[in-house]
Amino acid sequence: MSNTDKIEIIIDRLLDLYEIRVFEDRDPYRVLIRTILSQRTRDENTDKATENLFNKYKDIYEVVDGDIEVIEELIRPAGFYRVKASRIKEVSRILIDQYGGEVPNDMKELLTLPGVGRKTANCVLVFAFEEAAIPVDTHVHRISNRWGIVNTKDPDETEIELQKIVPKDKWILLNDLMVQFGQTICKPIHPNCDICNLTDLCDYYNLEI
User: Fold this and answer.
1) DSSP state, 73?
2) 40 in the Ramachandran plot: left (φ > 0), alpha (ψ -120 to 50) or beta?
3) C or N: which end of the chain has fewer Cβ atoms within 10 Å?
4) Alpha-helical segments (H) within 16-80
5) How far apart (Å, rounded) are the C-alpha atoms in residues 24 and 105?
């Protein structure tokens, strides 16, 4: 079975388990800031920090003029709040000075922003601009290698390999399904293989038994 055929079966089975999540807020600036806040923390912490920040500051101009200590306290739930607050202020200033307060819809330009790597840039392209991309987080990287559809050492390499084998019209779909799968079943430590419906397709499981 080719990896492309394997992907099709995997998507069908994951769709039996999960609903596709709908992201209501597609404002590019909010998506960018939320993704920065999401680094190295859980979704519920990201949600709380994002809500706190934008309840206080309504747009990029209010954020850039905001007191750094106030921003730190607002985003404290996301962890690493001093680093993230400084990064948010820096990115906001660059966006105002160089892009008229708008977030660029371009991978190369997004990657020039401080602290914005490929995963963050891809999240902006997907969730703000609805462009086909694969934001590879720890879940997507881990699961892709466990399934055996890639053999990669880091998320950037995983992204490149997935783009080769996953049909472009399935990039966003598969990414969303894999994140949910990684949060609920294929966890980093002690994955719930006993309730997984993909064990027959999983190299990790079949090498372990």
Assistant:
1) H
2) left
3) C
4) 28-38, 43-56, 60-65, 68-74
5) 19
- Please report which confidence band the pLDDT of residue 209 belongs to, taking 50, 70 and 90 as the band edges: low
Supply the residues annotated as catalytic.
Answer: 119, 137
DSSP string, 77-127: GGS-HHHHHHHHHHHHHHHHHHHTTPPPS-HHHHTTSTT--HHHHHHHHHH
The number of residues in the chain equals 209
How many whole angstroms separate alpha carbon 144 and alpha carbon 178?
A: 9
Q: What is the structure's pLDDT at 43? A: 87
Among 151, 138, 158, 153, which Cα is nearest to 203's?
151
Could you read off the pLDDT of 6-30 as tens digits, one per residue?
Answer: 999 999 999 999 998 877 789 999 9
CB atoms within 10 A of CB 128: 21
Instruction: Please classify residue 47 by burial: count the beta carbons closer than 10 Å to its beta carbon, then call 0-12 exposed, 13-18 middle and 19+ buried.
Output: middle
How many CA atoms lie within 13 Å of 139's alpha carbon, on the beta-carbon side?
Answer: 19
Task: Give me 46's structure tokens.
Answer: 């990201």
- Record the tokens describing residue 120, joined without a space: 């963050």
Which three-class secondary structure state does DSSP give residue 26? coil
CA atoms of 78 and 128, how far apart (whole Å): 21
Q: Directed axis angle between helix 155-165 and helix 138-147, to 10°?
A: 60
Structure tokens at 111: 């990657």
Neighbouring CB atoms inside 10 A of 176's CB total 18
